[in-house]
Request: fold
Amino acid sequence: MLTEFEDEIITSPGPCKFLSIAKEFEKAGVVSYAIDVYTKIIDKYPDTFEAVVSRFALFLIANRYEKNGKKELAIPLMRRLNN
Reply:
């Protein structure tokens, strides 16, 4: 017998599908769209595995921005992760 949480994960493709979309945007180089989708996953599905992955993805994007000298783009992402 499935618990309510397990049932939700199996029957709701939402966060998994959104994560897939975000990764595709990032691979295609459309990072701003990927950031938007990762952020929406965190906001709409905060207690899911996909939200954890999204937070990590945003951290990695912010880290890349910082290493490329784009601190003005990294700072809002890091602030978002601290909320």
Observations:
- The chain has five helices and no strands.
- The two ends are 36 Å apart (CA to CA).
- The domain at 4-82 is CATH 1.25.40 (Serine Threonine Protein Phosphatase 5, Tetratricopeptide repeat).
- The chain has one domain: 4-82.
